[in-house]
């Protein structure tokens, strides 16, 4: 934490930027400068890609059991350094320390989970009859370009790196320029765990200078990106031009459906957690709350009471931390005005909090149509809209009436309805009577414009390997 200036991590070494320039990160609790990170460029990316390509020749041939053992060692080391890593993320993101510690634990779990799965990546034999032996192999793509967002930096870096490394790939990572330091510390931890130099490289800087250079570099064999829809589309175009695969985890405007037979108190608690998780800075946030009309008034009372319990700030007893950047802070305030201009009734929040840093109150609005901008566009803050529905069929139509399809929630005590509605929701994950749910073991990704491919779980291994078929004539 005493270190203020951070360089790239390339080929197992701390590497200054070739251009000699640095960028300032900002502590969102205060709005003041915190860390300085290297401002990378295409030359730095090229150096990292060459280091990753060199390391690939060794890493891909390491016995899977040994690769897995090293990844488990990374998990242990993350936990050993958990307090330091959490405090770094607190400075970068401003979130309460208990929330930062939770993200560090999840990062450790990714390496633990995929370390255990590394020896289980295997092909199959196919019966072609007498005189033939046919089998498949699961092989790494090569060098993976991992471009990660600012809302959960070490969590997201581990989510991409662990399955990629487990399957024999090497990685060039580009964290957000707003939250780079915890990923740089992860690179040091990976190197200290005994993985070969160049297996995991980090180049910091902007998306236009570093991210774009990674996507077009000829060494990169696959892109894993989490971020905005706009950037994801651009990356998809560039990847298509090179005919390389992508995993894209993009935006969301997720519905959370409350049926009249639900445990309304539990639903109100869960719905508040769903739209305020990480101060609402989560693609899975349940920001469209759909409530059966017969219980709307009662549910709104409960929802408002739950919101009133939340404490905004970065102290240990707070639940809502700051918005990470001044630009995003301004965007949320703009949406307050948009919602009001569209006729919203704000029943909780709707204002900034305090006179220092980038804090906003958790906000609930009602009275908007399903077509209102505030009900359709991703705000990315602790803001939700509540709207009524009359029956199950209408609830499903309203839930699916979006360009996104990352997550959805539903609350009911009717088991048949739960399965029936879950099957009809156009979302990559559906949470029933909890929001959100799941862990590192559960596949994660989106329908529609929320993305392509899946991260997490065993499913992710299929997205970091390619299948080779071998046919032998005996």
Could you characterize the architecture of this molecule?
This protein has 15 helices and 21 strands. By secondary structure, it is an alpha/beta fold. It folds into two domains: 5-250 and 450-473, 3-Layer(aba) Sandwich (Aldehyde Dehydrogenase, Chain A, domain 1), CATH 3.40.605.10; 255-439, Aldehyde Dehydrogenase, Chain A, domain 2 (3-Layer(aba) Sandwich), CATH 3.40.309.10. It has a seven-stranded mixed beta sheet, with helices on both faces.
Helix-and-strand structural type? alpha/beta
- What's the structural domain tally? 2
Cα separation of the termini: 62 Å
The first-level CATH class name of the largest domain: Alpha Beta
Low-confidence stretches: none
The CATH topology assignment of the largest domain is Aldehyde Dehydrogenase, Chain A, domain 1
Could you say which overall geometry the principal axes of the C-alpha atoms support? globular
- Under the CATH scheme, the architecture of the largest domain is 3-Layer(aba) Sandwich
Report the mean per-residue pLDDT as an integer: 97
- The proportion of residues in beta strands is 15-25%
Helix content: 25-40%
CATH homologous superfamily identity of the largest domain: Aldehyde Dehydrogenase, Chain A, domain 1
